[in-house]
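Appendix B. Chain record.
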Amino acid sequence: MLTPPVIENDGIPAYIPELSVEQYHLLIREAVLPEGAPIELIEGQLVWKDRRDRAGSIMTVGPRHASTIRKISRILGERLRNCGGFVMTQQPITLLESEPEPDVCVVFRAEDHFEDHHPVGPDVALCVEVADSSLKYDRTTKLQVYARAGIAEYWIVNLRENQVEVYRKPDAVDAGYSDNLIVTSGGAVSLRVIDEEFEFSVSEFLSDGPPSQKSP
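Structure tokens predicted for this chain:
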């Protein structure tokens, strides 16, 4: 987490104030935070984006992580080309207290609509996170952020177990999804964008290699 060091004083707990989305944008505009830095605003805190395959520095971009994002982006882009929306990769979406940058995101509207602002929750049909070392975080914090924002559908492409976790029907109050399923290699996931439904084979997204060690 990118926060300045805070020293506790005489047993008084340290307090790190939360940033609003507007304050986060100001830090970027004033070059306090370099634009494009591998961080996100999550629930008011600056958080490093975890793009590792498993081990190594948090600054590392894992080859399989990157390759999987490219595959998903290409496949979704090709299939959804005429649906009236578009596909983004690792670009911001602006939510109430967060500005995450999903690995892949499907947006309902035309690209020209966003020349002066980022997509917001109701604009988003799908958020996808590709997860290995970030799996627990994506299943908890990220899931809660997307559910609270009303993101209609959330996929975790689980590199550890070679499967796709599908979450639907967000509940903003409970910060969760009431409908979820796991689709393994050989299965298919569907996605509704506007009035059209699309189906994707999990094997299109994931290689057939053996899964890594099980998640905790």
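Further analysis of this model is presented in Appendix C.
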